[in-house]
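dumping this here so i dont lose it
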């Protein structure tokens, strides 16, 4: 038994593997120029795993973003380093081969997926992946005793050594080594994996969508059905209080334009255990808006009800450490 297997429940040889589990996984990490919808991928890594989490191979590439590389102090990739790198269109086919027919696995998977989907949409193509699995959501399903949901915390729990944080290849390796025992623990307990749909983006445009400050945008394919989210499983703990963390079950509403596409931002909130609401009531815990003086109906109602309001950037920070639900 390996060190990783020692740290969690292993599947015994006589225990059948859950038949409903996926047949393969692509553990992915991308580094980007930023977090907004017009930001670009600058490096990508994929570890391919078989149905039981065994590593098959890995792949890494730099990507020329055709723009400023963003926070070099985080990812370490300068304009000089990226100047001779391939464009995304040059590596899209190889990237597709790594993803094809597999479940995309990432830490805060909605972010990696949205960046990948946008790059494919710009290239007038679609990523060949239809489901994703967030390792944050999986750790919650398993009830892992983590102090927070950072990658380094998950890695430390399983004894995985992180060598180069914010380097796509090492982050993907770390995640693959932490996902393997998580997957085995889930299989041993016949835990339902928290799989979510990956819906491709189409008809990308780099022209403004809404207002003079808006940047690129997309329109979903017209034949796709309207989104219906499953009910939030946690009770509403009440309103958000400034200086305290969000708590699972809180009702969150959004108003106005956002730099991260609204639907993807809502996905992140739902995956964190929040109740995404389409309207404002006295039960609403928090309103997220970048324009609190806009006078929209939601902003007006939030003011009437005394609902706390934060902007998108603050909400993004709060999403990093959402407290577990309060017991009923």
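and the seq i came up w/
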């Amino acid at each position: 038994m390996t060190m990783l297997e020692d740290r969690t429940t292993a599947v015994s040889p006589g225990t059948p593997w859950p038949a409903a589990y996926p047949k393969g996984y692509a553990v992915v990490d991308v580094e980007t120029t930023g977090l907004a919808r017009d930001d670009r991928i600058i490096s990508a890594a994929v570890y391919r795993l078989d149905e039981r989490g065994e590593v098959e191979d890995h792949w890494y590439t730099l990507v020329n973003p055709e723009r400023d590389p963003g926070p070099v102090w985080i990812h370490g990739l300068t304009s000089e380093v990226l100047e001779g790198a391939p464009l995304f269109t040059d590596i899209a086919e190889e990237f597709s081969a790594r993803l094809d027919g597999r479940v995309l696995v990432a830490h805060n998977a909605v972010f990696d997926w949205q960046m990948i989907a946008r790059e494919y949409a710009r290239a007038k193509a679609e990523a060949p992946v239809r489901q994703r699995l967030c390792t944050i959501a999986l750790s919650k399903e398993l009830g892992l005793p983590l102090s927070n949901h950072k990658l380094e915390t998950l890695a430390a729990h399983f004894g995985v050594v992180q060598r180069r944080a914010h380097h796509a290849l090492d982050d993907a390796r770390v995640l693959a080594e932490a996902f393997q025992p998580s997957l085995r623990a889930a299989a041993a307990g016949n835990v339902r994996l928290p799989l979510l749909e990956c819906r491709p983006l189409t008809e990308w445009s780099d022209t403004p969508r809404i207002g003079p400050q808006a940047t690129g945008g997309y329109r979903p394919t017209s034949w796709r059905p309207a989104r219906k989210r499953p009910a939030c499983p946690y009770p509403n703990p009440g309103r958000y209080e400034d200086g305290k963390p969000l708590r699972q079950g809180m009702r969150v509403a959004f108003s106005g334009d956002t730099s991260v596409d609204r639907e993807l931002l809502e996905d992140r909130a739902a995956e964190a255990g929040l109740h995404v609401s389409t309207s404002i009531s006295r039960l609403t815990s928090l309103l997220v808006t970048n324009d609190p003086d806009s006078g929209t109906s939601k902003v007006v109602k939030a003011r009437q009800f005394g609902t706390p309001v934060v902007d998108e950037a603050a909400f993004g920070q709060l999403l990093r450490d959402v407290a577990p639900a309060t017991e009923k």
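DSSP finds eleven helices and twelve strands in the chain.
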